[in-house]
Design brief:
The complex is a heterodimer of chains A (about 260) and B (about 260).
Chain A lengths: L1 H25 L17 H8 L7 H33 L2 H16 L2 H15 L5 H26 L3 H8 L4 H30 L2 H6 L8 H11 L6 H29 L1
Chain B lengths: L8 H22 L10 H8 L1 H33 L7 H8 L6 H15 L5 H26 L2 H9 L4 H12 L1 H17 L2 H7 L6 H10 L3 H20 L14
Classes of the chains: A mainly alpha (about 260), B mainly alpha (about 260).
């Protein structure tokens, strides 16, 4: 009885959480411009989305492209900067270490709007014209702390002597770095990269304040502008459905891999 | 060979330029007038402007209500998910976490559209419901994590010593899960106060929250007043983090 009630509660909550997404997914398969109006099954919106046969042409696809590009570049730089930083912070001691860790926490505690407004003021103050570069710099700023936090545990697990051992055995510092240190840290770097990538994909407020006036749109800013205009672009429905499915598949794969690894242990 | 602790230097420089300096600029702009002279007028303007004050009060109110509802609905869910007798399915856990990985604006827009179709008038009710919908995964996940990692022997010991299940829950499980709840509160409360797009979508721009007035001032080039409002928000963040200086609770959510 208790079990049934518990399950019922979980499913009720899940139904609530997923109702809007399922609703969007269903109405992505009809032609009607007005949401909630079923005019028969059709994949026209999907075709429109990919061929640019919609109002505003390929602006939506361009926004998706920008979002992915910015996320990829920001996550790559954040992973590089964050890994080097984690090695440095790990080797610091006492107050310096605590200080760096505190600094690392600031962007994670700050709400997006604070990060966005503060960086906006920085770029205004320095007289930097805002666009791709400022958005990427801003994304690196709020992504890197997560990489640092992902790599630090790997450093703690690592045998601290193996890097020196490689050097003693005649490896050059760069060989020791590539062949010894990086392989040990790789799992942390990968999860840091994924985290940074998704943080960047999800971002709205920071991009909004740092993109300037050159008309740079990411998916988030496109949706925001679209919703403010009133009419929601119907082609957003198939796009949301596709993103929803990709995330679902990725999470299932990651979880299945993890369960397999747990069993192998 | 250079010392490895020096590897933190590039990051230190980066953080000073892109985190510390920008925050200092918020303070600088907050205490300046348009011509760059020192002034307190931006701050006093906030405390004498009834519109700003009522927006601020409403934001705090909505954030508190949202956080409380998220705890009330999310705690039982996290507890069931972490309980081996009631749930063994990793898929169910995953389904609760998944919304965190989907663009919040997309999810909010979908919710707002659903409200529209169902004929609800967009207003405070839909705002609160939509906020709960957006943020509840961020409450469930950290609580679930703490409950899962909790040493079961405490609860068993309490049972052996004759405590009823109800007592075990309130006197052992709940106190031990406080760090998870605090981490959830951190991930729900401040984002609710500071959001602007979400509240605009869910109320059709009828209700303004604190984030919205910051955004409006910055975007209409009223940088100094916008910075002053951001400064006030920074003070609140400072206060909430002081109450929450437990290292373990930080950055626990959001991870896979």
């Amino acid at each position: 009885m208790k079990k049934v009630l518990a399950k019922a509660y979980l499913y009720l909550l899940l139904a609530m959480l997923y109702a809007p997404l399922v609703f969007i997914a269903i109405f992505s398969f009809t032609e009607s411009r007005v949401l909630g109006n079923w005019t028969g099954f059709s994949t026209k919106l999907y075709v429109n989305l990919f061929t640019g046969g919609m109002n505003g042409g390929s602006a939506l696809l361009a926004a998706v492209e920008n979002t992915l590009l910015i996320a990829l570049i920001s996550a790559a730089f954040a992973t590089l900067l964050g890994t080097v930083a984690a090695i440095g912070i790990y080797n610091l001691k006492g107050r310096k270490k605590a200080g760096m860790q505190f600094l690392n926490n600031i962007p994670m505690i700050n709400p997006d709007i604070i990060t966005g407004v503060s960086l906006f003021l920085l770029f205004v103050f320095l007289g930097v014209s805002q666009g791709y570069l400022t958005v990427i710099l801003a994304h690196i700023t709020f992504c890197t702390p997560y990489v640092v936090l992902s790599v630090m545990p790997k450093l703690a697990q690592m045998n601290p002597n193996i890097y020196e051992a490689a050097l003693d055995l005649g490896a050059t510092p760069s060989q020791a770095l590539r062949k010894v240190l990086v392989p040990e840290l790789r799992p942390g770097m990968i999860s840091g990269f994924i985290l940074a990538f998704t943080m960047s994909l999800d971002d709205f407020a920071v991009t909004f304040f740092t993109r300037g006036t050159i008309g740079l749109e990411t998916l988030s800013t496109y949706i925001y502008a679209d919703a403010r205009k009133g009419g929601l672009t119907p082609e957003l429905r198939p796009l949301m459905t596709i993103i929803f499915l990709i995330v679902l598949i990725l999470l299932v794969v990651v979880n299945m891999r993890r369960e397999k690894m747990n069993k192998a242990k | 060979m250079i010392k490895r602790s020096y590897w933190s230097l590039p990051y230190l420089i980066f953080m000073v330029v892109f985190v510390v300096l920008p925050l200092l600029l918020i303070v600088l702009y907050a205490f300046q007038d348009g011509a760059g002279h020192f002034t307190l007028s931006n701050i006093t303007r906030f405390f004498t402007d009834s519109d700003s004050l009522s927006t601020f009060a409403l934001s705090i109110e909505v954030a508190i209500e949202n956080t409380l509802i998220c705890i009330l609905l999310g705690y039982p869910a996290a507890w069931i998910l972490a309980n081996r007798n009631l749930n063994r399915s990793a898929v169910t856990v995953m389904l609760f976490i998944m919304p965190m990985w989907i663009n919040a604006l997309m999810r909010t827009l979908a919710t707002a559209e659903l409200f529209n179709i169902l004929g609800f008038t967009l207003g405070k009710g839909t705002l609160l419901f939509g906020m709960v919908y957006d943020y509840i995964p961020f409450m469930i996940y950290p609580i679930y994590n703490t409950l899962l990692k909790m040493d079961k022997s405490y609860a068993e010991a309490a049972e052996d010593l004759g405590a009823t299940p109800w007592k075990v829950f309130w006197k052992v499980t709940v106190p031990l899960s406080v760090p998870g709840v605090m981490s959830g509160v951190l991930m729900v409360f401040m984002p609710t106060v500071s959001t602007f797009a979400i509240s605009e979508f869910l109320t059709n721009n009828k209700i303004k929250l604190f984030g919205t007035i910051i955004q409006e001032n910055i975007n209409s080039s009223m940088w100094n007043y916008g910075a002053a409002l951001a400064f006030i928000m920074l003070l609140i963040i400072g206060i909430t983090t002081l109450f929450n200086d437990n290292k373990e609770t930080q950055a626990e959510g959001g991870l896979i």
